[in-house]
Description:
Blueprint: H1 20-48, E1 52-55, H2 58-65, E2 83-86, E3 90-94, H3 99-105, E4 110-113, H4 118-129, E5 133-136, H5 143-152, E6 157-160, H6 164-170, H7 174-195, H8 204-217, E7 222-223, E8 228-231, E9 252-257, E10 259-261, E11 264-265, E12 268-274, H9 279-303, H10 312-325, E13 337-339, E14 346-350, E15 363-367, E16 370-373, E17 377-380, E18 383-388, E19 393-396, E20 406-407
Parallel strand pairs: 1-5, 3-4, 5-6, 12-20
Antiparallel strand pairs: 1-2, 2-3, 7-10, 8-9, 9-12, 10-11, 13-14, 15-18, 16-17, 18-19
Helix pairs in contact: 4-5, 7-8, 9-10
Amino acid sequence: MTNLVRRLPHPADFPAPPTAADRVRWTAADTAARPERLARLRAKMAAEGIDAYFGVRPEHMRYLTGFTLDDGEDRVAGHSGRFLISADQVVVLADSRYRLQAAAQAPGARIENTTYDLAAIWPELLRGLGARRVAVEAAHVSHQLWGELAAATPDVELVPAAGWVESFRAVKEPAEIERIRAACGVADRALATLLRHIKPGKTEHDLALALEWEMRTGGGDGLAFGIACLAGPNAALPHGSPSAREVHLGQVLLFDFGAMVDGYRSDMTRTLFMGEPSERDLAIYETVLEAQAASLAMLSAALRGEAAVPSGKAADAAARAVIESAGHGDHFGHGTGHGIGLATHELPSLSRAATDDPLPSPTVFSVEPGIYLDGETGVRIEDLVLFDTSRKDLEILTSFPRDPVVIGV
């Protein structure tokens, strides 16, 4: 039986927040890495007979050009931040609000003024690049915008590009891993700080807000995503939002949250016990912990040379088999994990829908099996892991204990 953790983790148990020197070093690392990132994309373009690549995702904009919008700013930035890459040019679009920022952050790019009518300047942009076949991030471009661009340049072929830059970003550079590790540390410390303030009668809203405060004041630049703080039967909602529900003894309390450090994100889930756990909830917890261990064991065996590098589908199946054998197969509907970096969910995928290709390396992804009983309870345990075949390293980046923690007493 899994040991209950009664000594609450202390914030000092976890690494210190990143320093200003760390951030300067990370910016320099991105600048140094950008030519190679562009070279990989241009090689893909050449192989596909593409003259220019039109990108719209904020993560790709930052990764390839250096121009950075605050989290969520892309929703009000119009076409600013969208970019075109040809064999010899990088063009970043920016309206008057972002022109100076783009020039400072993307010094190797040509900054072109844009308005909300992208189609009006589209023909001239493509003529300047000599582009007749343009790859477009079609999954992130509206049908309306696609139609407007196609109509503006009927002699240009727009080619859907799926997963090109995403596959490059799945393989993490050292400075990217450092930032994810730092974000994990911020989240670990924040939860450890909050534990001592969780008492019966607090609401999910109260605790989510307190956890956000700890991350923002403890070295994080913001949230990786909206915090899930779910008590008792609400924990059966895998992506539920905090409510006015109070937490009470005898229930589980599930936190799913992450910090953002210099654009890179963490993601962890801990299911805590308010007071002594019930036999049912503890049994579910132990099953979920065993399922996570099964997936991690498969990854470790590959690094030891005892097995081939698994696919995301196989890593998912290892965890799912444990839950199914415990009779909870119908209570685990989501995937076992996902990649993380500049986006909270990115490649590689650990799920039934993942490919059969071996996992990339070095990469960072979550391992997060769960069991959810509708209207009763839910348990998920999520950690981020660094998977590196060259170093034969499987590092768990989240350091908060995975054994069941008892709080509120």
